[in-house]
Amino acid sequence: MGRTLLESLALFFAPFALFALYLVVRLRYPLAVEHWSRSRVATLTLVGLAAVLAGFVLLQVTAPRGRGRYVPAHVENGVLVPGKIE
Predict the structure, then answer these.
(1) DSSP per residue over 42-76, as a string?
(2) Is residue 85 part of a domain?
(3) Residue 26 is part of which domain span?
(4) Quick one: which H or E segment has residue 2?
(5) What is the largest CA-CA distance in the chain?
(6) How many CB atoms are closer than 10 A to CB 12?
(7) Total number of domains in the chain
(8) What is the pTM assigned to this prediction?
(9) Could you tell me the CA-to-CA distances from 51 to 7, 14, 68, 76 in Å, in that order?
(10) pLDDT tens digit string along 20-76?
(11) Staple 85 to which of 23, 31, 50, 68, CB 3.0 to 4.6 Å?
């Protein structure tokens, strides 16, 4: 859960960080209010949300599923054998 949340946050904030880096490269002060107009912030927000959505889709497409059969934990000869996928 934590990893998914951190990856989603990283994907969302990546466009903002790239825009700030762009401003630094162009020798502009990235914290100046005039660079962060309402339309730019809205565009960066939509790009960030699209990146998060693309990340979720990519995760669903590439997730390993249906590879084997789950064998639950059980006791063999008095020893607990943990569950596993065969």
Answers:
(1) HHHHHHHHHHHHHHHHHHHHHS--S-S-EE--EEE
(2) no
(3) 2-71
(4) helix 2-25
(5) 73
(6) 18
(7) 1
(8) 0.70
(9) 11, 9, 32, 48
(10) 999 999 999 999 999 999 999 999 999 999 999 999 999 888 887 777 888 999 999
(11) 68
Domain assignment present for 37 = yes
- How many other CB atoms are found less than 10 A from the CB of residue 44? 20
Q: Report the sign of the C-alpha dihedral through residues 55, 62, 71, 74, in that order.
A: negative
The pLDDT confidence band at residue 2, using thresholds 50, 70 and 90, is confident
**Does residue 34 sit in helix, strand or coil?**
helix
Residue 65's pLDDT is 76
Question: What's the rounded Cα separation, in Å, for the pair 59 and 54?
Answer: 8
Q: What backbone phi and psi angles, to 5 degrees, belong to 30?
A: -70, -15
70 near 85, Cβ under 8 Å? yes
Q: Name residue 52's amino acid.
A: V
3-state secondary structure of 79: strand
